[in-house]
Amino acid sequence: MKLLQLLLLIFPLVLSSQSKVEINGKILSEEGHAVPFANISIIGEQTGASADRDGLFQFSLSAGAHTLKIQAIGYKTKTLQIDSRNQEERSLQISLAEDQLGLDQVVISATRNRVNLKKAPVVVNVLSPKLFNATQSISVAESLNFQPGVRVETNCQNCGFTQVRLNGLDGSYTQVLMNSRAVFSALNSVYGLEQIPTSILDRIEVVRSG
User: Fold this and answer.
1) The overall pTM is greater than 0.90
2) Among 22, 29, 32, 155, which is 20 to 30 Å from 183 by CA?
3) What range does the record give for the signal peptide (predicted)?
4) What digits encode the pLDDT tens for the residues 137-166?
């Protein structure tokens, strides 16, 4: 009786080990390029795998019919039905289509040519000669005080050291350009702005996200 019980315990374990099969394959784009780090999950089961940088993957699966779900950033999600009992369906080559409309993009842009302010990728506020005359601003430092979010404040009463605060940030975070060229350092810009008359300026542009 003890021998029979031992055989009954071992037999299910053997069946369980034999019911698992190895599934491997490669994830490709429609152009034939490898899709790295795609996720492969089995619908209805707590198992799956991730492709490596070459698009290759491998995982164990129980014998039978399954539905695979393949996801990758920048590509449309794909579902694929396989039967792991079929030897030909244990080695897969899966092609994914690009999802150009569904991709959440991070766009980094820069412009060096003349661009209409309404079409510029960043917010630009312009101080014109009309504002200089209306506020009777003689220097650049005086005119900046009439721009929202910009403040020119004196830090030293003895030497007259001032700094330009933009959106509350310290003056060291503000850069001054003339004709798109950096002409002031972080130190002498606070003195130089007092020496530039508004009469020689065409306009002042304040870029808050440059």
Assistant:
1) no
2) 155
3) none
4) 888 878 887 777 787 777 666 666 667 777
